[in-house]
Design brief:
By secondary structure, the chain is mainly beta. The protein is built from 3 helices and 16 strands.
Length: about 400
């Protein structure tokens, strides 16, 4: 059996293991981040089956007090990877409930973060997430900007050539989305995304004179797009889930009619499942991810590894193409006073079309990490991971699990 055939078979086995067992599980326990059915919400609000405001609680069973005090986290984030060299970031997050009487909605959060690196890259962003009305409504706003000095390796099989082109990208972005719960734990909504970027591609010193006659090349893009989104979310916690599912689906269409300079679209879907193996101390997590971009997508905005939670151990942009898929498993063990350790492994691929879906560049990923539970009640964690792929290993620091 060839190497690629073995990988494809392993990929199929992983999907079967991840999807089948949990599909037959019972409904996860209800808590502040797993919205219960509508009838249960009416009971919490003191309404009877007809919707009238009749008391529905048993006075002999007093409600358990809920911690509604705000929580603030401020942490430095050291970074090293082949793209940025050494970098230092910082993040501050404030979490709080909008309504102290609402014990169903997850805590809302306000976030600010920034980073500077030794290769003269920098980045700053701010974000707001809001949950209200017994988690019937979810809204997000993120704005930011920065400048990144990185390497562009080409797309598809061109990344195997081993020649990297210096790429400088400056820009600003904004994203906002709103989701409304329509049934049980299913949400539908919309999304708007804007970015303005200026990219300069230069020739490396070892490039041929022919290549150098065409470079540097400078291009500016303005991307403005609208999209439809949905989520199925039965996680028991949005920061560090121990059981349940999270399945987000995103479609976004960038068009000159919305004020942009480019016409293209991006589609992605993820599947995350969480299995509590022992009293919320031993958790097995699975993740599958698929992303596709249409023709006309700017090369530096194509789906790429290293950009999110998938395939830790690769520099951002080392492999990119029109299609990207990945799958991974992670075992998390919280063993003593909020301290934890994880091991993870995954596999993925980038390719140019659906016809080549299982013939693209095959990418393994594996590693281990440490965790510390900053706020046990909210399960807000700090993580440090070391991941490896086909090339150099990389460290990851953040507040929240990888997925």
């Amino acid at each position: 059996m060839s190497g690629r055939a073995w990988v494809r078979r392993a990929f199929g086995i992983w999907l079967a293991v991840a999807w089948v067992p949990e599909a037959q599980a019972q409904t996860p326990r209800q808590n502040i981040t797993s919205p219960p059915p509508k009838a249960d919400l009416d009971a919490k609000a003191g309404k009877d089956a007809s919707g009238n405001g009749q008391a529905a609680t048993d006075p002999a069973q007093p409600a358990e007090p809920v911690d509604t005090s705000p929580k603030f986290i401020g942490v430095p984030i050291p970074i090293y990877n082949p793209q940025l060299d050494f970098a230092l970031g910082a993040m501050g997050m404030l979490t709080y409930p909008l309504d102290g009487k609402d014990t169903v909605s997850p805590p809302s959060s306000t976030l600010a973060a920034g980073m500077v690196s030794s290769n003269k890259s920098w980045f700053a962003m701010a974000g707001q997430q809001v949950f209200w009305a017994h988690d019937d409504n979810r809204a997000t706003l993120v704005v930011g900007g920065g400048h990144f000095n990185s390497d562009f390796y080409g797309t598809g099989d061109a990344t195997d050539a081993g020649l990297a082109f210096p790429l400088g990208t400056s820009g600003v972005f904004a994203m906002t989305k709103y989701l409304r719960r329509v049934w049980n734990r299913l949400y539908f909504g919309g999304k708007y995304q804007f970015s303005a970027t200026n990219a300069v591609l230069e020739a490396p010193d070892e490039a041929s004179d022919t290549i150098k006659t065409y470079l540097p090349v400078e291009k500016s893009f303005r991307n403005s797009g609208l999209g439809a989104i949905s989520e199925f979310d039965s996680r028991d916690n949005r920061f560090s889930a121990t059981r349940g599912f999270y399945i987000p689906l995103n479609t976004i269409f960038f068009n000159t009619a919305f004020g942009g300079t480019t016409d293209y679209s991006v589609f992605d879907v993820a599947y995350n499942s969480y299995h509590d193996l022992h009293q919320k101390q031993l958790i097995l997590a699975f993740r599958g991810f698929f992303q596709a971009a249409s023709a006309g997508t700017p090369a530096h905005l194509l789906p790429t590894i290293g950009k999110g939670a998938d395939l830790r151990g690769y520099a951002t942009g080392r492999y990119r193409d029109y299609l990207f898929m990945a799958a991974q498993s992670e075992l998390r063990w919280y063993f003593w006073k909020g301290l934890g350790a994880v091991v993870f492994a995954g596999i993925g691929s980038t390719t140019s079309s659906f016809g080549e879906l299982f013939h693209g560049t095959v990418l393994p990923s594996y590693g281990l990490g440490l965790r510390y539970m900053l706020h046990p009640k909210q399960r807000l964690v700090m993580r440090v991971d070391y991941g490896r792929g086909n090339e150099e290993g990389m460290f990851y620091f953040s507040v929240s699990e990888a997925f």
